[in-house]
């Protein structure tokens, strides 16, 4: 900014011409020929538009007495200032050493520039308080010893020192908010430091520039307000023209209103005649509506019966479809795909086979009952034949057994009939329960619909209420139109109060008396106008009548502030337990929670699907599960499946490795495996272990059978198989011999069968049959052939 810096002036030889040159560069011309000549001294300060800092209220505060005294234009103060300046010029200065070996108390060039910049920065303080603070900071900073300078203790204030000559000038500068001039002691006295002197002059220039700018802004504002005033006058003239046009339009509209009233009377008469005709049509339509309602009710009853039958058919189809899908899922280990033609064809085949299976099951049940009856008949005939060929001593016993058998047959037949009747009754009960459940659902729906209709009827007004409401609406419309006309005709507040209600006026007067608002009538018109204008500016309103609604809205908003604060505290407390958090964090946290909720829904759906898939496992694997599957149980099942998959893959690798190894016939174990597969017809390696287990079971069963035969024939355990078979053949031939001796009368029930006459009794046969039935139920077998494999597993 300055062509000559403070450090350059300080380094140059000290003279008054450097100060004058510095002032001229800043636009100030200071000419003083002598100390006492006050008329030749003048200051020339140009106006600039640059602002160093914003204005504050302290800049426009009234001047203190000390300020007025310091800035007075008396000749004694001016002469005193010029005398001080002449005295400063007359003081001798120490020459500046420019040799490389400067003394230790010389200030470096860079340090001088730092002090100059500090002085310039301090001069940009915008307010007097800021300048005082900066001056105090500068004094404290200047009072400290600088680097490379010798610390010289200032003399006492009570003594007569050379500083007392500069004290009035420093006091005057401090009173006006400027920093004092720093003095440098010399051998002959003290001289002012150039940086401090330039900083004071710079602050004075800045303040003068700011005040000039303020004056210029005020002049521009006054021109702007004058233009606005002229524009408002033009608007006022245009509004007056519009008012005249509106009054003419109002007169024309009044004439139109009169003509419309006559037309309204004609339309009213025509409307009454049309209403009578409409009433007759309405009565006819109501009669037709009642007849239609009766027909609709009859159709609804028929439709309900048809829907019930259709629902039964649909239930049966749904049951068959679910059963078909379960069979498909059991076979294919997956759900059928709707878009797959092969799956649809498989479902059709399964449904066909299921229907055939049901028919076959019914036929098999009927055939089993017939077979049981035939078996009983054959057993009875065989018993009769055996009793006829037997001894005479058993005649009474056979008759008793025959009676028991006949009674048993009758009981079985009666129990079979009772079971059949019970099954029929159970089916009827199930059908009745289904119909009852469906009827209850229909009744509940009808009750809900009836309740809704009752509420709707109760909410609707009657004809009398409707007519009363219509009359009330017409009356209110008239009153409203009268009020609007009165408001448009009114020109003062007294005219408007005529159309206000008595209760509203009483309430208004009470509130005015409570708040002592009647004293506002004593206020001048200008004060009220200023207050209203201030309120309109604060609320950004252009109409005075909107002040009340706007204030009411503000009151409602302020009343809602505690609830809003409570809500914000609650939300912040929910988000963070450490206290109130910034609102920006709250929004981001809620957004994150919302995203987490979407992920949570996906995880929940994944969990439900996983539980549904796990619940379709075979019942043999989920016997220990009671109720819904928990997350821990599901995780355990998944771990088991993974372990099973690992085990299965390991076995598959092991079998594949075994297949590759069997192809090497040089190893003996491989030759043995191939020979075993050839002997028993095992086609794959996976069938080797099951075949070995089957051979083991067969050998054990044969050994057990041979042991039982040897024990029955009374042979030793060490007897060979051939000898045991020969003895069994001999025993069978003896059983077929008709000349065998009769049984002893005291033979026990656990005798050995040696002939047809030694057939066990009916009670023993029934006991065996019951035992086999219980075994099938316990082991879950369908036939007797499945008992041994299941018992072995």
UniProtKB/TrEMBL annotation:
<dbReference type="GO" id="GO:0005813">
    <property type="term" value="C:centrosome"/>
</dbReference>
<feature type="compositionally biased region" description="Polar residues">
    <location>
        <begin position="137"/>
        <end position="153"/>
    </location>
</feature>
<comment type="subunit">
    <text>Directly interacts with tubulin-gamma; this interaction determines centrosomal localization.</text>
</comment>
<protein>
    <recommendedName>
        <fullName>Centrosomal protein of 70 kDa</fullName>
    </recommendedName>
</protein>
<keyword id="KW-0802">TPR repeat</keyword>
<feature type="compositionally biased region" description="Polar residues">
    <location>
        <begin position="96"/>
        <end position="107"/>
    </location>
</feature>
<dbReference type="GO" id="GO:0043015">
    <property type="term" value="F:gamma-tubulin binding"/>
</dbReference>
<dbReference type="GO" id="GO:0070507">
    <property type="term" value="P:regulation of microtubule cytoskeleton organization"/>
</dbReference>
<feature type="region of interest" description="Disordered">
    <location>
        <begin position="92"/>
        <end position="167"/>
    </location>
</feature>
<keyword id="KW-0206">Cytoskeleton</keyword>
<keyword id="KW-0175">Coiled coil</keyword>
<dbReference type="InterPro" id="IPR037692">
    <property type="entry name" value="CEP70"/>
</dbReference>
<feature type="compositionally biased region" description="Low complexity">
    <location>
        <begin position="117"/>
        <end position="129"/>
    </location>
</feature>
<comment type="function">
    <text>Plays a role in the organization of both preexisting and nascent microtubules in interphase cells. During mitosis, required for the organization and orientation of the mitotic spindle.</text>
</comment>
<feature type="coiled-coil region">
    <location>
        <begin position="350"/>
        <end position="486"/>
    </location>
</feature>
<feature type="coiled-coil region">
    <location>
        <begin position="243"/>
        <end position="288"/>
    </location>
</feature>
<feature type="region of interest" description="Disordered">
    <location>
        <begin position="29"/>
        <end position="61"/>
    </location>
</feature>
<dbReference type="GO" id="GO:0060271">
    <property type="term" value="P:cilium assembly"/>
</dbReference>
<keyword id="KW-0963">Cytoplasm</keyword>
């Amino acid at each position: 900014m300055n062509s000559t810096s403070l450090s350059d002036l300080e380094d140059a030889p000290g003279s008054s011409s450097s100060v004058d040159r510095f002032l001229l560069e800043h636009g100030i011309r200071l000419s003083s020929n002598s100390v006492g000549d006050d008329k030749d001294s003048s200051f020339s300060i140009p106006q600039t538009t640059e602002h160093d800092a914003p204005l504050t209220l302290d800049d426009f505060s009234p001047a203190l007495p000390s300020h007025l005294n310091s800035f007075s234009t008396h000749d004694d103060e001016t002469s005193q200032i010029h005398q001080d300046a002449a005295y400063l010029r007359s003081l001798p200065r120490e020459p500046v050493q420019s040799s490389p070996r400067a003394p230790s108390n010389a200030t470096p060039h860079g340090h001088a520039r730092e002090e100059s910049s500090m002085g310039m920065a301090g001069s940009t303080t915008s307010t007097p308080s800021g300048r005082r603070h900066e001056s105090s900071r500068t004094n404290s900073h200047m009072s400290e010893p600088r680097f490379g300078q010798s610390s010289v203790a200032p003399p006492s204030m009570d003594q007569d020192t050379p500083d007392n000559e500069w004290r009035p000038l420093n006091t005057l500068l401090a009173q006006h908010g400027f920093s004092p001039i720093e003095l440098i002691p010399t051998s002959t006295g003290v001289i002012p430091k150039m940086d401090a002197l330039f900083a004071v002059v710079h602050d004075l220039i800045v303040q003068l520039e700011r005040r000039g700018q303020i004056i210029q802004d005020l002049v521009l504002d006054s021109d702007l307000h004058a233009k606005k005033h002229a524009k408002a006058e033009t608007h006022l003239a245009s509004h007056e023209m519009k008012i005249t046009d509106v009054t003419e339009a109002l007169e024309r509209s009044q004439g139109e209103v009169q003509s419309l009233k006559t037309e309204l009377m004609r339309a009213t008469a025509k409307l009454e005649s049309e209403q009578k005709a409409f009433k007759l049509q309405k009565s006819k339509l109501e009669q037709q509506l009642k007849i239609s309602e009766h027909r609709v009710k009859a159709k609804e009853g028929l439709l309900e019966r048809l829907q019930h039958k259709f629902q039964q058919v649909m239930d049966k189809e749904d049951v068959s479809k679910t059963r078909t899908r379960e069979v498909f899922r059991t076979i294919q280990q997956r759900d059928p795909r709707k878009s797959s033609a092969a799956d649809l064809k498989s479902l059709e085949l399964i449904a066909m086979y299921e229907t055939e299976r049901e028919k076959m099951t019914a036929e098999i049940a009927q055939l089993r009952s017939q077979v049981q009856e035939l078996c009983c008949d054959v057993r009875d005939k065989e018993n009769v034949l055996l009793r006829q060929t037997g001894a005479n001593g058993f005649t009474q016993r056979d008759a008793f057994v025959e009676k028991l058998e006949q009674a048993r047959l009758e009981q079985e037949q009666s129990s079979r009939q009772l079971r059949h009747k019970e099954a029929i009754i159970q089916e009827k009960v199930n059908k009745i329960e289904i119909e009852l459940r469906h009827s209850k659902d229909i009744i509940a729906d009808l009750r809900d619909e009836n309740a809704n209709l009752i509420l709707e009827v109760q909410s609707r007004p009657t004809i009398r209420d409707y007519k009363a409401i219509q009359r009330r609406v017409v009356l209110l419309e008239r009153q409203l139109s009268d009020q609007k006309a009165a408001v448009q005709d009114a020109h003062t507040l007294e005219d408007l109060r005529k159309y206000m209600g008595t209760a509203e006026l009483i309430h208004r007067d009470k509130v005015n008396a409570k708040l002592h608002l009647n004293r506002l009538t004593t206020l001048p018109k200008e004060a009220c106008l200023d207050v209203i204008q201030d309120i309109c500016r604060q609320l950004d309103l252009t109409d005075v009548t909107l002040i009340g609604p706007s204030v009411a809205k503000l009151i409602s908003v302020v009343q809602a502030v505690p609830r809003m604060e409570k809500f914000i505290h609650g939300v912040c407390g929910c988000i963070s337990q450490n206290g109130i958090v910034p609102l920006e964090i709250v929004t981001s946290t809620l957004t994150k929670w919302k995203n987490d909720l979407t992920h949570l829904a996906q995880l929940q759906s994944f969990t439900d699907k996983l539980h549904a898939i796990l619940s379709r496992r075979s019942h043999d694997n989920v016997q220990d599960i009671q109720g819904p599957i928990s997350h821990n149980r599901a995780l355990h099942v998944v771990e088991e499946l993974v372990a099973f998959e690992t085990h299965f893959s390991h076995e598959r690798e092991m079998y594949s490795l075994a297949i590759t190894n069997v192809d090497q016939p040089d190893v003996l174990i491989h030759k043995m495996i191939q020979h075993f597969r050839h002997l028993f017809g095992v086609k794959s390696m996976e069938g080797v272990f099951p075949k070995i287990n089957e051979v083991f079971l067969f050998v054990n069963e044969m050994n057990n059978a041979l042991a039982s035969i040897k024990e029955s024939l009374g042979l030793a355990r060490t007897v060979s198989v051939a000898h045991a078979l020969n003895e069994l053949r001999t025993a069978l031939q003896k059983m077929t011999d008709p000349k065998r001796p009769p049984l002893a009368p005291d033979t026990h029930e656990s005798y050995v069968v040696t002939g047809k006459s030694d057939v066990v009794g009916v009670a023993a046969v029934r006991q065996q049959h019951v035992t086999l039935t219980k075994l099938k139920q316990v082991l879950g077998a369908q036939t007797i052939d499945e008992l041994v494999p299941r018992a072995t597993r």
